[in-house]
Please model this.
Amino acid sequence: MLFPPTERKTDNASERNDVRTLLKADIIVIGAGQAGLSSAYHLQQLGLKSWKNYLVLDKSPGAGGAWQYRWPSLTLTTVNRVHDLPGLRFSDAVDVGDEVKASVAVPQYYAAYERKFELPVIRPQTVTVVCERSGRFRVETEQGGFSARGIINATGTWETPYIPTYPGAESFKGRQLHTHDYKTADEFAGKHVIVVGGGISALQLLDEISRVTSTTWVTRQEPQFRDQPFTSEDGRAAVAIVEDRVRRGLVPGSVVSVTGIPWTPALRAAQARGVLNRLPMFTNITENGVRWADGTEQRADVILWCTGFRSSLDHLAPLQIREENGGIIISGRLATQVAKDPRIHLVGYGPSASTIGANRAGGAAARELATHLGLLEG
Ligand SMILES: Cc1cc2nc3c(=O)[nH]c(=O)nc-3n(C[C@H](O)[C@H](O)[C@H](O)COP(=O)(O)OP(=O)(O)OC[C@H]3O[C@@H](n4cnc5c(N)ncnc54)[C@H](O)[C@@H]3O)c2cc1C
Model:
């Protein structure tokens, strides 16, 4: 063991995180959000030893995964639902009320989880590149170097906001920002805001911003609202579609894109205020706004791109796991294993890109990888 627990149990944060030498473990989990924590928990449940058999590297300064960066108005009421991690109920770890900010409550929960199970999370550790080195993986971070026999990648999507390209974008004199950088509607008071996107985040932000200022809503496709509440069967069907895509090596697509958007009281109210008059995508961005193909223009001060995220996987590029179409062929019981290299699992990717999906996928990935590496024998 190159990283004895006795040495790790220092209260000195800088000492804990100053990892300049090459540290070895059988499995390195990259990312400590829902997917990484679930994976680490399951590795522990399989009887593997922390620090020797597995450890977790996380880029963020504190516990909470991407939840620590979510905008302040996202509360435990307005999120879809943060499912309990295995082994500790949210409500047992955090004093929760519906109006509690998700960016506060979820990090508290994850921190309690890490403490309860003494998970070997090292942070901040930003993995910059993973490459093959003498039959092992060399994991380079901004802070040091690690070596592993297998990787569970759980880096989520937050670090990779996606903004589509439109002609004239660079000429726009107003402000363009992505959901990733949204803080509060108040900063847009008195400005005209174009909200781009048809997902749940787009609608939540459109609702908020339209209460303080004028808005235009544009989406690529006609939004599909649904009257019926979302059932677990609907969820399973949506996940199955995404799972089928990744097993065929296609780019996953979001689960929401196949589920539609359930009407909520807030959305009904927004509709009554005339805010949901959706327009198709503009074709050009101009100095002062946007223009459609028929020449119609809309002046704008702000374009808010609620256009989603991509999986944050650039650090795995040297491993060449992508197909020519940019997708990754995934196999394994719950679609976590990279078919080209069974020593790599992606958790929180494709069908497991939800808190419940990440819980289950973490269990499957832990078992399959530990078995593949011969860690469960004897
Ligand atoms: C606005 C918004 C609301 C959402 N609401 C819900 C909801 O209500 N319910 C739900 O089930 N899902 C929701 N989701 C999806 C949600 O993000 C996932 O379900 C889940 O929380 C993602 O967990 P994760 O562990 O995969 O990723 P993250 O929470 O993003 O965790 C990834 C971790 O990896 C770290 N990391 C990233 N890159 C590196 C690197 N190179 N090196 C080291 N560490 C790295 C990050 O710092 C982070 O700590 C929402 C998503 C968004 C964007």
About this structure: Residues 30-36, 57-60, 65-66, 70, 79-82, 125-127, 154-156, 158-159, 201, 312, 315, 348, 353-355, 358 surround flavin-adenine dinucleotide (CB under 6 Å).
